[in-house]
């Protein structure tokens, strides 16, 4: 029932935005996890769910003035892309979502008691679930396969960041924090094998424009720097201060994803397939924060403790205050970015240099 309610909420959101005949795309359909979720997690769980911190102040403080279910102080990348394209939007992303379906991917998510000791995320919502909600919505938009192909041929599909949560399962079990990252090849293969058929599905539905995001540098997330930190200085990148091993994993994931998308575009030359880089901008912010208007990087605006991150004083908990000026920070709560950082990423996806090809073409 909650899934049905979610679809209804998305449908209402879709109909509430204005549409300009001058727009390049008439609609935007987005999928993903917390980097793209504009409130669906709160709808799924209910706003009064105990321990649901994302529905508490100071989340949303910068732009909205109140929590909206977004894991940031304000708008996300998708919030900047939508108005720029003057398109109606339907968002199926859910915070905590994974690329793989946890219940049907035992090789990726070892069962409790296995040699890895890792457990699947409790959310158990994957890209396949989000695409199922999209399928459930289609009858409200078009009434025949041909009509749907025409409708979706004028839409932009954004598959936001997916993979961070998948790898997070193994990180939590302590199996990906070692320099060897010996499990990463299996993780990478499983992730790519799962994701690509789902993107074929969107094309078969009529999509002619698809944007797919890579993952951020996991070694730069303050939460990971605290929870997975090392006493060995050689484990850190000298130019950024980020954890080398985790960033190696992020780069490997993104390289394979980018290559797979190039192959996908070659197989469907009538479809514009864009690889949206989330790694490059965040690593640039970490290496030279002042260049982008930030006072510093690798520390949170909303939390406390080392790197401004502390699980016992997490953002949204009673008595935990945010910094006075979130726009001076890259990181918001240990994993997610501030509105200021998301704005820069969105600009780079729209016109470059952080997307290949850019959504709107090179400036």
Automatic annotation (TrEMBL):
- Which Pfam family name is an example for this entry? Lipase_GDSL
Q: Which keywords label this protein?
A: Glycoprotein, Hydrolase, Signal
Extract the InterPro entries matched here.
Answer: GDSL, SGNH_hydro_sf, SGNH_plant_lipase-like
Say yes or no: keyword Hydrolase present. yes
Q: Which residues form the signal peptide?
A: 1-20
Q: Which domain of life is it from?
A: Eukaryota
Membership in a protein family: Belongs to the 'GDSL' lipolytic enzyme family.
Kindly give the PANTHER family that the UniProt entry links to this protein. Answer: GDSL ESTERASE_LIPASE, ZINC FINGER FYVE DOMAIN CONTAINING PROTEIN
- What protein name applies here? GDSL esterase/lipase
Q: What taxonomic classification does the UniProt entry list for its organism?
A: Eukaryota, Viridiplantae, Streptophyta, Embryophyta, Tracheophyta
